[in-house]
Design brief:
2 domains, 13-stranded antiparallel beta sheet, Jelly Rolls, 36 strands, mainly beta, 2 helices
């Protein structure tokens, strides 16, 4: 994981990732100053080391002398091009423009004129300086997409008319070495104030556009049969659940990865972190699916099968609860009230997977990082309504009038096909990922709990666990490294 933190813990802003010669290159904003674009590198896409900063704001009087906002970095033959957002002090940073920089080695960047020094909003399709009802213009977050031999930039823009809080769209600019042609919006759902950090890709015969939505801090998506076709939304079009933001995609061989940063506790002024990437896939209907990063399996140092795992213990000593071990299968239940069936984890970083079978009614789920007071993370599976949730739940010693913590951190939906499903829980440092039937449903960073007890819970339910495997992962690497170490990566 990576935060880029210094004096502030929320310094990492919008991100873009380029893979070159087997090395992942991360470029990101620095919050709240927005005065330079940072650069970090990684061999595995999970552990990052900072290297030379890519670019700084312009000198006083230049078009980008106030702030730098979201960027995109692409290969251009033997060189690299950065498309980035700039703001100017003389107009109080209220108008965002798109500029260009170039590099031969991804380390040294020079601002260039292509097709001009910068592109600024024009009023044919989008709000501009003369039509600016919010008094600040959205024309930012460029993303390059090459289609049929031509180059387009997708931008976070707003249409020139309509309800003020619903004008957000994905704008399109066709660019050449000498011109910039504004085209009608690619995606305009008539629903949001802005569609931030847009990006596009083709996958399994369809075109997809991702966009980050400030209203609920989620990453949503739209799809079309052709790049310039009519874009639609499925009944549930959330690509990444709440707290995940500024998603961008990168090709990693045969895998299509999505990177983003995460708002801890859903607040912009708290720690922001770049979690490990996920892989993108689709189901038979074309709905996007999140898959676990393939490199997790390459990191496993040891594997413990269910019959060799520690024996389960009853935490609350509920008299109506019972737990049986039957030929590698755990059968747990509680007729009345809660019970947590736990074991002490063999490693603080791990992958725990298995199959849960649900019998009858009642509540059920997983627990992790539980302490001696029963405080920890509770993962609930509502198999009737298809809702999965992670909750921080436990004792609050800081407030004797509200001596409990009961925070729903993240929620998602899953398909209810049967009462048996596979789960895969990843805990790596403070990163938490939960997949159901091989589809990632929860992905987040949280720092509330870190104790050693984990297992299952039941309330008026009977559940069984089989085919369970506990895979040990190494602890996360330190983010800060010696410069000579970084040079070895490059």
């Amino acid at each position: 994981m990576y935060s880029g933190s210094g004096y502030s813990e929320f310094e990492i802003g919008d991100v873009t990732v380029l893979m070159h010669k087997g090395i992942y290159h991360l470029f990101h904003l620095i919050i709240p100053n927005h005065d330079y674009i940072a650069h970090a590198v990684s061999r595995d896409g999970i552990s990052w080391k900072r290297t030379k900063n890519a670019m700084f704001v312009g000198n006083p009087g230049e078009w980008d002398d106030d702030m730098l906002w979201t960027m995109d970095v692409c290969e251009d033959g033997d060189a690299f091009t950065m498309y980035y957002t700039g703001l100017q002090r003389k107009d109080r940073g209220k108008i965002s423009r798109i500029g260009f920089a170039q590099s031969n080695n991804l380390l040294d960047w020079k601002k260039i004129s292509k097709p001009a020094l910068f592109i600024e909003p024009q009023g044919t399709y989008y709000e501009d300086a003369k039509n600016n009802p919010r008094h600040w213009l959205s024309f930012r977050d460029p993303y390059r997409f090459d289609y049929n031999g031509e180059t387009y930039l997708l931008v976070c823009a707003r249409v020139s008319e309509g309800p003020l809080s619903r004008r957000g769209c994905v704008g399109v600019i066709k660019i050449t070495e000498i011109s910039a042609e504004f085209l009608p919006p690619l995606v305009y759902p008539m629903a949001f104030d802005d569609i931030e950090c847009p990006c596009a890709f083709q996958l399994n015969g369809k075109y997809y556009v991702l966009g980050s939505i400030r209203e609920d801090i989620k990453v949503r998506y739209w799809f079309a049969q052709e790049f310039f076709g009519e874009y639609h939304a499925f009944h549930y079009n959330v690509a990444l659940p709440n707290g995940n933001y500024a998603a961008r995609v990168v090709e990693d061989g045969e895998h299509l990865l999505v990177f983003n940063f995460f708002y801890t506790q859903g607040r912009v002024d708290l720690l922001r972190v770049l979690p490990p990437p996920k892989q993108l896939d689709t189901d038979e209907k074309g709905r996007l699916l999140l898959k676990s990063f393939y490199k997790w399996e390459l990191m496993v140092t040891d594997t413990i099968v269910q019959k060799d795992m520690p024996e389960l213990k009853l935490f609350f000593k509920n008299k109506t609860a019972s737990c049986e071990h039957d030929d590698g299968k755990w059968i747990c239940g509680s007729r009345s009230g809660y019970e947590v069936f736990y074991f002490d984890r063999p490693s603080s970083s791990f992958i725990w997977e298995g199959q849960i079978n649900v019998e009858g009614m009642g509540k059920l789920g997983l627990v992790s990082d539980v302490d001696n007071d029963g405080s920890g993370y509770y993962f609930s599976f509502d198999v009737n309504n298809g809702v999965v949730r992670i909750r921080a739940w436990g004792y609050n010693p800081a407030n004797d009038r509200q001596d409990f913590i009961f925070n729903d951190i993240q929620t998602n939906v899953f398909s209810v096909k049967q009462t048996s499903f596979k789960f895969r829980l990843i805990r790596y440092g403070n990163y938490i990922e939960l997949a159901i039937d091989d589809v990632v449903k929860l992905t987040l960073m949280d720092y509330t709990y870190s104790e050693s007890k984990m297992g299952l819970y039941s309330s008026s339910s009977v559940i069984s666990l089989e085919q369970s495997v506990f895979k040990i992962l190494p602890d996360p690497e330190e983010e800060y490294a010696d410069p000579t170490e970084i040079q070895k990566l490059l």
